[in-house]
Specification:
This protein has about 250 residues and is α/β, with parallel strands linked by helices. It is built from nine helices and twelve strands. The strands form four sheets. The chain has a six-stranded mixed β-sheet, sandwiched between helices. A two-stranded parallel sheet has the order 3-7. It has a two-stranded parallel ribbon with strand order 4-5.
């Protein structure tokens, strides 16, 4: 059975402690079951090169500040997989490393998907040297892992503009809704090239993606689609006007 690929709109690290999106993440875990492992591409690990975490016991990284002590102390003790790291390196040329662990783009969602922390997880960095087409090419090299029981995952946000985010909540900005819908439409059309050229997807696209690190993980999931794969969305909400929580399941 081919393992799905999943993109998570992760939003605030506070989502690790619960909130309105956790139920859909839990449901997803029950539907998928327990894969052999996860390769996660998170918005929060950018590097000058392609790296893959290779520890047997990766650290829970608290890569944020100003949140409650409970969150700073949060631990998600999922195992790593040196063997999976080697396999990812074989496919992509990534360099195995122990200088990173599981950042909040990973553990804040996976703590709900697999609350027992019993699924091995490795992270693959976002290589700053690559353009969007280069990320798509790298992503496609991972596709064979879906036949080996490994789930390919990305964590970020379609729309991620903290400068315009409304702390007190409120309706989505029209430009955020327009871009979010354009991204969903491109995914449904299996138009990965359109996603890679995201600036042309909708008017004022750069308001939705002022920097690309939260958008690029989506390419790693969209590029996994095969003929016959079903596509579905979950947590399809724009929070605080300009943070999209939309998730995608392929397969």
């Amino acid at each position: 059975m081919t393992t799905p690929a999943v993109f998570f709109g992760h939003g605030s690290p506070m989502n690790a402690l619960g909130g309105p999106y956790a139920a859909a993440w839990r449901d997803l875990g029950r539907e998928i079951g327990r894969p052999a492992g996860v390769v996660m591409v998170s918005a929060h690990w950018e590097a000058d090169g392609l790296g893959v975490t290779a520890q047997a016991r990766p650290e829970t990284i608290h890569d944020f500040g100003g949140f409650p002590a409970e969150l700073h102390a949060y631990d998600y003790p999922a195992p790593g997989s040196p063997a999976l790291a080697v396999r990812v390196a074989e496919l992509t040329g990534a360099v195995p490393t122990e200088t990173w662990g599981l950042d909040h783009g990973t553990w804040s969602v996976l703590t709900h998907v697999w609350p027992d922390a019993d699924v091995p997880v490795v992270q693959l960095s976002l290589d700053r040297r690559l353009d969007a087409a280069g990320h798509v090419e790298t992503a496609r090299r991972l596709n064979a892992l879906r036949d080996e029981g490994v789930l390919i995952a990305g964590s970020g946000d379609f729309v991620h503009n903290l400068r315009t985010w409304k702390r007190t909540g409120g309706d989505a900005y029209p430009w955020a809704t327009s871009f979010n819908e354009a991204v969903k439409d491109a995914i449904l059309r299996d138009d990965v090239d359109a996603l890679a050229n995201w600036v042309d997807l909708a008017e004022e696209a750069q308001l939705s993606v002022p920097t690309d690190e939260h958008f690029l993980p989506l390419l790693y999931v969209a590029a996994q689609r095969r003929a016959g794969d079903a596509v579905s969305f979950f947590n399809d909400v724009i929070e605080g006007g300009s943070i999209s929580m939309t998730g995608v399941r392929i397969g």
